[in-house]
Amino acid sequence: MRIVVPAGGIGGARFLRGLKAALGIGAPATDEQTTVNTITVIGNTGDDITLFGLRICPDLDTVMYTLGGGIDEEQGWGRADETFTVKEELAAYGMKPTWFGLGDRDTATHIVRAQMIAAGYPLSAITEALCDRWRPGVRLIPMTDDQVETHVVVDDGGGRRAIHFQEWWIRHRAALPAEQIISVGADAAGPAPGVLAAVAEADAVIIPPSNPVVSVGSILNVPGIREAMVGKTVVGVSPIIGGAPVRGMADACLTAIGVETGAGAVAEHLGPDLLDGWLVDDADAGTVVEGVEVRSRPLYMSDPAATEAIARAAVDLAVELAGRGAADGGTGG
Ligand code: FO1
């Protein structure tokens, strides 16, 4: 099977580890294995930020490190065995900002990326080059090679102003009420090379439990990507369980765009025209979304086996719905 996964950071990366296991990717090939399963990840680049002359791509790096074995497991972002000497030295020079956790090992990734940007390489080529080292076992393509950044409009008493998503997320822990969340540059952006072809060739699109606004939402904001997916069999995994996000602060993002923090509300927000299937946790078993096949099962990615089972269920639902679509002559979507 060829699966396309639009993914953000921590939740998406962890889900992808389970999806690889469910599809036998990375496991020793068995001789009875007839079909080759592949995963193409469309990575969110809206979190990207330029700091100290370096271009930092948090969600691309989180997927690359998590699937490549270099992630700080506890944090879910950044490198294992990390140190912060460069960060401390920058602060000693009075360099701002000091709120961003710039790790020394991680900085090597940002230097390679900055050097390749300076040499004229697009982000998609740079990501491919970085993945040559990490071998994540999936094809990782940024959603676009153009600059798209998520900025958040806040008013903390000093008047309305837009701050970078990372400042809102890290410095303010998303506690500053967001009046607007904007994908700056999205309208002028185009899908990166390979994105639309991967979606067209996919047997299914699986939307992981990433942040539906700033991760999945940013990817769908790139003109052409959502439209391409509508025609495919799409199954999503709810990032909200029992009215609360499993991790991170997706509720602050949903509130900012006027969407209720609920498994059903997120599916409605993503759109019944896009979603064919939606996995919700047993806590949300009664969820009904018009035009979407809702199934409930445990959704806590509490360990690798649980995550693999969730991914397996998403794939199985996609296969079922694709078959149903073929049966009634539809193309899914
Ligand atoms: N998240 C934090 O909460 N604090 C940090 O200091 C931090 C630094 C950081 C550095 C590199 C990187 O790739 C990710 C980093 N993150 C940090 C996560 C980052 O904010 C992600 O964009 C969010 O977790 C959303 O995916």
UniProtKB/TrEMBL annotation:
InterPro entries: CofD, CofD-like_dom_sf, FbiA/CofD. It holds the Pfam family CofD. GO terms for molecular function: LPPG:FO 2-phospho-L-lactate transferase activity. SUPFAM superfamilies: CofD-like. Signal peptide: none annotated. It is an enzyme of class 2 (transferase). Its EC number is 2.7.8.28. Keywords: Magnesium, Transferase. This is 2-phospho-L-lactate transferase. It comes from Streptomonospora nanhaiensis. The gene is cofD.
